[in-house]
Design a protein that fits this description.
The complex is a heterodimer of chains A (153) and B (256). With 153 residues, chain A is α+β, with helices and mostly antiparallel strands. Chain A has 2 domains: 73 residues, Ubiquitin-like (UB roll); 74 residues, Orthogonal Bundle (DNA polymerase, domain 1). In chain A, 35% of the residues lie in helices and 15% in strands. In chain A, α2 packs across α3 and α2 packs across α5. Chain A is globular and about 45 Å long. Chain B is built from 10 helices and 12 strands. In chain B, strands 4-5-8-6-7 form a 5-stranded antiparallel β-sheet. In chain B, strands 9-10-11-12 form a 4-stranded antiparallel β-sheet. In chain B, strands 1-3-2 form a 3-stranded parallel β-sheet, covered by helices on one side. In chain B, α9 runs antiparallel to α10. Classes of the chains: A alpha+beta (153), B alpha+beta (256). Chains A and B meet through β4 and α3 of A and β1, β3 and α5 of B. Bound molecules: flavin-adenine dinucleotide and FE2/S2 (inorganic) cluster (2 copies). One FE2/S2 (inorganic) cluster (FES) binds next to loops of chain A.
Chain lengths: 153, 256
Amino acid sequence: MQLTLTLNGVRCTDEVQADTTLFTYLREKGCLSVKCGCETSNCGLCTVWLDEKPVLSCSVPALRADGKKVTTLEGLQDEAAEFGAYLADEGAEQCGYCSPGFIMNVLAMSRELTHPTEQEIQEYLAGNLCRCSGYQGQLRAIRKFLAAKGGCV
Amino acid sequence: MYTARNYVFADSPEHAWELNQKKTNTILSGGCWLRLGRRRYDTLIDLSKLGLNQIEQTDTYLELGAMVTLRQLETSPLLAQYFGSYFSDCTRHIVGVQFRNCATLGGSVAARFGFSDIVTALLPLNCQVHLVKAGWLPFTQYAAMPYDRDVLTHIRIPLQKHIQVVYQSTRNTQTDLPTLTCAASCCDGRISLALGARSSRPSLLHGNTQSDLLQEAEHLTYVENMRGSSAYRRHLAKILIQRVCTCLEGGQHPCS
Ligand SMILES: Cc1cc2nc3c(=O)[nH]c(=O)nc-3n(C[C@H](O)[C@H](O)[C@H](O)COP(=O)(O)OP(=O)(O)OC[C@H]3O[C@@H](n4cnc5c(N)ncnc54)[C@H](O)[C@@H]3O)c2cc1C
Ligand code: FES
Ligand code: FES
């Protein structure tokens, strides 16, 4: 079936199967930042934006994105690198496998919430699991990133 | 993950209903639950182009489309205006923001899971559900019905004057499935209280006092599973009933 969407600002039309997930489609389009961690809608690693909202690409059928705008980390490289530097400074990554989904959700949060409290930050990111870090470094990185952007309490 | 041969955007609720009469087809709402299964479907029936993602207000009720996401329930200013933090309390522990941007009200209600925060929260609100063939039904009736192949399109929540509502749940970890869910409304001194995550469907109790409800809750079934024993759930039920009744006495979440 035919799927037309805007991927990272570029209009694409492709043939996809009825049961292709957005995750599989995006990987096939070369967006290799999009990774799969659980396949049970639990880990947040596959997070992309669908019409600016963070969603789990492993759970969304590709055809649901027809006519919509999809954004992956590849489409937000400067911002992702900027926040990634805060993660590195705070020693917030070990294997780094969770980072693409985590960064996508932090950037979505920075757009959706103004001056989020600590609890709001934790709740917003509760769907991003990290096996290594214990989350403290990530939280420090977020606070510093938001403060630098003038968006933290 | 499921497999499917066809994908159809329904062009009306009736079209969705017709397609859904074939047992090898299925309605696809958020798809978050469906994807956990390994069934083979002929046709996935997508409801996302039917404008069912709206929360609308009339003088006497709020009408929510089946494709309203759990995140919309959580953040809707209209729901917050009438029900305080009730809808945010019943959704914010469900997995994560990205998940709640996908999973829908319709999928949650139609699936009628025993653990459902959403079904528990809607039970004490005197809601109605709209199905394509059956028309409008009381939510309490729908919540207890066996599964069939009708298609849910809307839910109406009446705007009752002087109603107070409160929602609480317990979980082993913040975003896990609940070990117990409890939702209560109080209108003119009469309390309606739903308890979920304790059997195959949540139950609705009624009473004038906390002790009426505690007594009624004694007679319910409390299942045992990997998240908690039957005795633990029975104990939690008492605690949550006491907590929600204390909140109601304290005038928490009064609706305007
Ligand atoms: C990992 C995980 C954790 C979860 N944790 C919780 C939790 O803590 N609390 C909670 O309450 N819920 C929880 N859920 C359930 C979740 O919130 C949704 O209820 C579930 O995903 C179904 O919603 P959906 O929109 O994804 O429906 P789908 O997966 O699209 O559909 C679910 C079922 O309902 C049918 N259906 C869908 N829409 C309609 C309709 N309009 N009319 C008729 N039939 C329909 C489908 O055919 C299917 O059989 C969890 C789910 C997962 C996968
Ligand atoms: S791979 Fe999508 S949530 Fe884990
Ligand atoms: S750094 Fe390894 S999973 Fe997060």
